[in-house]
Amino acid sequence: MSKFVVVIFPDETKAYEGLRSLKDLHGEGSLTLYSNAVIQRSAEGWLSVKEKQTEAPLGAGVTALVGALVGLLAGPVGMVVGAGAGAALGSVRDLLNLGISNEFLDTIIKELSPGKTAVVAEISEEWVTPLDSRMEPIGGVVVREWRDDFVEDEIQRRVSRRKAELAQRKAELAATRAELVEAMKRRVSEAEQALRATADHATARMERDREQAEAKIIALQNQATRARSDAKAWIEKRIAEIRADQNQRLGKLEQAWKLTQEALRPGGHSTGGPMDRLRVFDP
């Protein structure tokens, strides 16, 4: 699994020194840097995006995190400037999909006081010492958070609830009085539409997850070609972890898809759907 790191520095010069060190660690293979941005909080509290390397799909997580920080730090009427700041930034809502904790956000808000600059990045690392030992001498305060996308679990729960609701509606329809049948049919139709919408969400989510995972694997493979020989084993381990994690996520979403099919075709069997083409990552 990858992590979000936010490294807060006393000024912009130190932040760019920290970003160079982060890229050096990537070159050595001590960690893998997927995407990054530099944000600065002015003396007045405005947040500016000084630099970002967050192209989709690899940078989607950092984009969402930076956008959410803008909302939290600058407020609903806050200003964001620089580095194409208005384009494709995330929102506070996106943090729910990333599994970001309140403790992580509270620490950033506390440390990123007016006048300071931060490097925001998504990385994979085997040890925390390499990053910490490079950042501390130049005044960097490192804040970490695992990227814990739990949306797949929530989709499974939502499908189960909607399936139960649909079954209940159908049972009530079978037992309802004749004059209420049409109204109950509408309720059943609404429940079916809600279930289909959740299944569509699962499919779209899997597409996004797959794109990001494939982009990470390509980045890791490229890194391996330039890394030290002793770092290549770590990189291969990261690739294997991404493959295993992605297939686990797919299994959850596939189960949600099957539950949907069973609910929409009573007495039948679930058939192949969009999930079939998303089976991924043979070693």
Give an overview in words:
With 283 residues, this protein is an alpha+beta fold. The protein folds into two domains: 3-146, no CATH class; 151-278. The chain is built from eight helices and six strands. It has helices at 12-28, 60-74, 92-98, 102-111, 129-135, 151-175, 181-226, 229-264, and strands at 3-9, 31-41, 47-53, 80-81, 117-125, 141-146. A six-stranded mixed sheet has the order 4-3-2-5-1-6, sandwiched between helices. α2 (60-74) links the parallel β3 (47-53) and β4 (80-81). The longest helix has 46 residues, at 181-226. The radius of gyration is 23 Å and the shape is elongated.
In short:
The protein is α+β, with helices and mostly antiparallel strands and 283 residues long.
Detail the topology: elements first, then pairings:
Layout: E1 3-9, H1 12-28, E2 31-41, E3 47-53, H2 60-74, E4 80-81, H3 92-98, H4 102-111, E5 117-125, H5 129-135, E6 141-146, H6 151-175, H7 181-226, H8 229-264
Parallel strand pairs: 3-4
Antiparallel strand pairs: 1-5, 1-6, 2-3, 2-5
Helix pairs in contact: 1-5, 2-3, 6-7, 6-8, 7-8
